[in-house]
What does this fold into?
Amino acid sequence: MQNQSVSFSHLTAYGPSRNEISTEHNLALDQEIRLYTNNKDREKFENLADLYAIIVTMEHLEKAYIRDSITATEYTPACAKLIAQYKTALNLVSDSMPDVDKFMNDYKLECPAAVNRFKIGVPATIEHSTIADHDSGNSAKYVAETVQHFITSMDALRLKYRAVDDIHPMLSELIQSLNNVSSLPADFEGKAKIRNWLITLNAMKASDELDDDQVRQLLFDLENSHNAFYRSLSDKN
It folds into this structure.
C-alpha cells in the first residue's frame, strides 16, 4: 500500500483571528480603557488614587522606622503629615468609602501597619515612650507639664467641650507628656486608656461630638489616670 499525503489546506484555522476579534468587538487590544466619562468621576478616581498612595507610603514609613532605617526625628514629622493627608483624602471620598476598612477590602490592599497608625492618629514616637531622647534633668518639668495637660483636658470636658477637633489634640499632648516621664512604668494604665480614646476619636469626623455618656466615661478615665499618675510618682519617692 502506498503512503498517501493528505492536505489540510482547505480547512480553516481553529478560532477567530486577531483581526476578526478586533472587527467583531471594535476594540483594539492596546486601547486605553477610561474609568470615567465626566469630570466628577475623574476627580473621584484621582482622590481614590491619592488615598491608596498615602496608605502605601505610610506602610513603608512604619516599616522603615521599625527597622531603624530612619531616625525618630525624621519619622515623626513625616508620619504626622501623612496622618493629616489621610484624614483629608478619606474625607474627600467619604460618600463611597466611609472608612479605611472598606477601602482596603475593595482594593485588596494589605497594609496593617499603616491602618494601625491611622486608627491611632498619632506617630509611634508620641504613642510610645522614647526614653533615650529624654533629658533626665528635666524630669520635674515633664511631670509639671503632664499634670497641666491632665487638668486642661478635664477642665475642657467640664466646660462642655465636645467636638473631636477640640478633644483629640489635648489627648495627643497628654500622652506625649506621659511618655516624657521616664519614671512611669511601661504598662502604666493611663497610657492604654488614653490610647484607646485616641483610636475612638480618630474614627470620628472632626466635626463630630461626643455624647454625654462618652464625655462622662472619658472624664472618669482621665481622673483615674491622673490619680494613678500621682500614686506612681509617690511610689518612686
